[in-house]
Amino acid sequence: MHLRSTTAEDAPQITALLQRSYPVLMASAYELTALAAALPLMTRANPALLATGTYYVVETQGKIVGAGGWTRDKPGGGGFDGETGHIRHFATDPDHLRQGIGRALIERCLTDARFAGLSQMECFASLNAVAFYAASGFEALGPLDIRIGGTVPLPSLHMRRPL
C-alpha cells in the first residue's frame, strides 16, 4: 500500500474509483432516486482538489484503491476561518474495505492539518460514512443537506473533531 499526493494525471483513475465506490457503499443509506440524481455529479474527480497538495490516493499494485484529502476552505467556497480544516471527497474501493485504506488517508489528513497549525477538522459525512468518521474521533454537530452541484440535496451529518 502506497499513499501519495495526487496529480492531475490521477483524475481518470480517481473518477473510476468514485464510480466503483459510491453507488455500492451509499446504496444502503440513501433512496435510489436521491442517488440517481446525486451520483453523476459526485463521481467525478475534482481537478481543483487534485491540485491542492492535500488530496491523496492509496495505490495497491499500481491501482488507486482509495482517495481523500482536506482543504482549509469549506466545500462550496465557504472560505477559511483560521483554525478549521475540511475533509474532502473520501472513497475506498468496495473490494478493498477493512484493509486500513480509509484509516491511512484520514490519519494523513489529520497529521498534515495539525502540522499546518489548524486546531480542528470538520466533515460533511454521507450517512453511510458516519461510523467511519466517528471511529476517527469526529462528533456529530447535526444533520444538514449538502447541495450536490448546487442543486441536488443529499442528507448528511456535520461532524467535527479536535486536532
Lay out the secondary structure.
Elements: E1 2-5, H1 11-26, H2 32-42, H3 47-50, E2 55-60, E3 63-71, E4 84-92, H4 101-115, E5 120-126, H5 130-135, E6 139-148, E7 152-162
Parallel strand pairs: 4-5
Antiparallel strand pairs: 1-2, 2-3, 3-4, 5-7, 6-7
Model description:
This protein has a single domain (2-121), classed as Gcn5-related N-acetyltransferase (GNAT) (Aminopeptidase). 32% of the residues lie in helices and 34% in strands. It is built from five helices and seven strands, in the order E-H-H-H-E-E-E-H-E-H-E-E. The chain has helices at 11-26, 32-42, 47-50, 101-115, 130-135, and strands spanning 2-5, 55-60, 63-71, 84-92, 120-126, 139-148, 152-162. It has a seven-stranded mixed beta sheet. Strand 6 and strand 7 (152-162) form a beta hairpin. The longest helix is centred in the first third of the chain and has 16 residues, at 11-26. It is globular, with a radius of gyration of 15 Å. The two termini are 25 Å apart.
